[in-house]
Amino acid sequence: MPERIRLGESELWLIRESEVQAHLTMARALDAVETAFRDWAHGRATNQPRQRVHTLQGTLHLMGAAWRHYLGYKSYFSFAGGTRFVVVLASAQTGELLALIEADWLGKIRTGAATGVATRHLARPEAHCVALLGAGSQASTQLQAVCAVRPLRTVRVWSRTTERSQAFCKMMSDLLEVELSPVTSVEQAMDGADIVITVTAAREPLVSGAMLKPGMHLNAVGANSLARRELDTHAVARCDRIFVDDVAQARIESAELVIPIELRRLSWECVLPLASLVGGLAVGRQSPEEITLFKSLGIALEDVAVASAVYESLIG
User: In 10 A of CB 126, how many CB atoms?
Assistant: First the structure.
């Protein structure tokens, strides 16, 4: 059971990382994130794009949202020694502080869940082969989410470090009933893939337009600043449908979209919120040959949605 702590005149629950991991399953995260996006499309949620405070040594990131009975924010500090995440959850009716939640795993699983929701609505129903570019700390929840929404049979994993991709395949083979194979090039991973997931720390594009094939669905997850991108301009320009988790946040964080727009290869009118698709206000894939893209940035609404699921599971 979580610890009850006092903060000033308020008492709230302190929910530790181990408790989040024990109670926040991928199925629960997928349901919470999809429901929150659907509510947002119909005016029943609010999201505030991320803001950053920089120093020479590190960065403070702040993002907030409101959904149903909850109001909350995530803050995290990125320094050379690592990144520390916390979510604060309050009552949207009274402002009463409800919980202080350690949020490393929470952030990873909500990012995976957003990819899962986008894949559920955009990938071809029979899609079964995944190219996973990146084998770092975010990769496992990305793959778990896509496995939950599509009948995957084959996953090809590429990483800049061969040992890492091999270790990742071994670890995930024990968790998922899917054939995982490490590969030595991006091109090898993408050859014949139905779904592509990019979740790397790349600063320069890994995926070119020439690598895309009709019918692919792409989830571009790794880059959320104007200094980084995983897809080049031609790749983005080839996509028939483009969705993001928050258009306002994409305008200030997504180099993958900002650069093609500056080069007049894309317009913001073609970039739609995922909420509008989930909420039935926008159309998704219209043919098996279309190429679709979900550009994930990671937004506060996702954090508040899964934080509330953890809170309700533990506290009731």
Answer: 10
The per-residue b/e assignment along 159-171, b for 16 or more CB within 10 angstroms, e otherwise, is beeeebbbebbee
Q: Where are the beta strands (DSSP E) in the chain?
A: 3-7, 10-15, 45-54, 58-67, 70-79, 82-91, 97-102, 129-133, 154-158, 179-183, 195-198, 217-220, 241-244, 271-273, 292-295
Categorise residue 161: left if φ over 0, alpha if ψ from -120 to 50, beta otherwise.
beta
Enumerate the H helices of 123-225 as residue ranges: 139-149, 162-173, 186-190
Q: Please identify which residue in the block is written with the tokens 């061969």.
A: 162
Beta bridge partners of 64: 48, 73
- pLDDT tens sequence across 225-255: 999 999 999 999 999 999 999 999 999 999 9
Q: What share of the chain is helix, strand, coil (3-state, %, to 5)?
A: 35, 30, 35
> What pLDDT is stored for residue 1 in this prediction?
80
Neighbours of 248 (CB within 10 A): 13
pLDDT at residue 3 greater than cutoff 90: yes
CA angle 134, 297, 108 (to 5 degrees): 55
Distance between CA 283 and CA 290 in Å, rounded?
A: 13
Average pLDDT over residues 124-134: 98
DSSP tally for the chain: helices H, then strands E: 11, 15
Q: Find the mean pLDDT for residues 21-48.
A: 98
pLDDT digits (tens, 9 = 90+) for 72-117: 999 999 999 999 999 999 999 999 999 999 999 999 999 999 999 9
Q: Is 135 exposed, middle or buried (0-12, 13-18, 19+ CB in 10 A)?
A: buried
- Residue 258: partners with Cβ closer than 8 Å, 6 or more residues away: 226, 250, 251
